[in-house]
Amino acid sequence: MEKFARPKSPSRKRWSIGLSIAVIIVIIIVIVVPLAVLLPERGHKGQKSAVILPLYIYPSNSSSWDPLYEALDAHPELHFLVVINPSNGPGNNPLPDDNYSAQILKLNNYTNVETVGYVRTGYATQNITNVAEEVATYAGWDTQNNSLAMHGIFFDEAPHEYSADAVSYMQIVNQVVKNSTLQGAKTVIHNPGVIPDSRFDDSTTDITVIFEESYPVYQTKVTALTDLNKKNRTEYAYMVNSIPTQSLNALRSYVDTLSEHAAYLFVTNNNQNFYDSFGSMWSDFTAVIPT
Ligand SMILES: *[C@@H]1O[C@H](CO)[C@@H](O)[C@H](O)[C@H]1NC(C)=O
Ligand SMILES: *[C@@H]1O[C@H](CO)[C@@H](O)[C@H](O)[C@H]1NC(C)=O
Ligand SMILES: *[C@@H]1O[C@H](CO)[C@@H](O)[C@H](O)[C@H]1NC(C)=O
Ligand SMILES: *[C@@H]1O[C@H](CO)[C@@H](O)[C@H](O)[C@H]1NC(C)=O
Ligand SMILES: *[C@@H]1O[C@H](CO)[C@@H](O)[C@H](O)[C@H]1NC(C)=O
Ligand SMILES: *[C@@H]1O[C@H](CO)[C@@H](O)[C@H](O)[C@H]1NC(C)=O
Ligand SMILES: *[C@@H]1O[C@H](CO)[C@@H](O)[C@H](O)[C@H]1NC(C)=O
Question: What transmembrane ranges does the database entry give (predicted)?
Fold first, then answer.
């Protein structure tokens, strides 16, 4: 006796079930696949962020900054905060040299660029009068040609360990920037490279670089960084070097994660002389930043 015999169905019915399945598959292919292709942003979880670029490359010819111009042209909706650094500061002359001037004029012509000048504080040890003079030099660039204007200052080697003197020093240099004839927002950026003592918090500091280290070190500090970011991510920047070569999707996912906690980002696969060249992942990085 045959157990569990299949009910005998007419082959016509089986044929029509097969046809229905085929039709459903075709519908899925025709409707769902193009939607998935048209909507690559689906499930994108990053938050709108900007590039902070330490542009420490001497423009010895008109092509030296081409990777930057290519990214600016490709991503007009992406904001680029570009740190200009002729000589660990503005240099000894009132104006940048002709090579620099030509490229700064070109850069400032982009509506998605905000140029800021580089000044070292030596962890609040540099003569504060000289620091103020360097800020004044950047502020003076536009007197020659308005298109050379800087729009803020990037204070490198900012202190992170508390002392009343260091806090007061940073408050004064911030005020020098805000009082200056720099243009635009007169954005003040501090780069301690790590999370500074909370007593450095000051309403005149617009952005603080709270991470400037390698990709492996990021993994060890992620808890401290994300805890801190219960506050406002628009006040924070991360600059991550030595990131491994990876697929565009993997890079997008990493940058999305960073963007949850800092609104100004820079990542490079350079593992030495991090800022002397753009690095081979520069173009991919600018393509994946959430805008
Ligand atoms: C521009 O850069 C080139 C190449 O480094 C150099 O030879 C030249 O002296 C520079 N020009 C100025 C005005 O500094
Ligand atoms: C321009 O300068 C860059 C370095 O900034 C160099 O790599 C490149 O070879 C130079 N190109 C020309 C055409 O001289
Ligand atoms: C500035 O941009 C305009 C329009 O995009 C262009 O015509 C002009 O040549 C640019 N100027 C400089 C100095 O690059
Ligand atoms: C800082 O520099 C100024 C001018 O260069 C000088 O007059 C002053 O004595 C210096 N201050 C210190 C503490 O070295
Ligand atoms: C600034 O310099 C650029 C390039 O040399 C020139 O085209 C422009 O006319 C200058 N603008 C002023 C206001 O001098
Ligand atoms: C900035 O300007 C304010 C108001 O004019 C002044 O009280 C203050 O001393 C200035 N601070 C610095 C560091 O220039
Ligand atoms: C964060 O700061 C930005 C810019 O100052 C402001 O527009 C925004 O409302 C702030 N967000 C929160 C959650 O405080």
Answer: 15-39
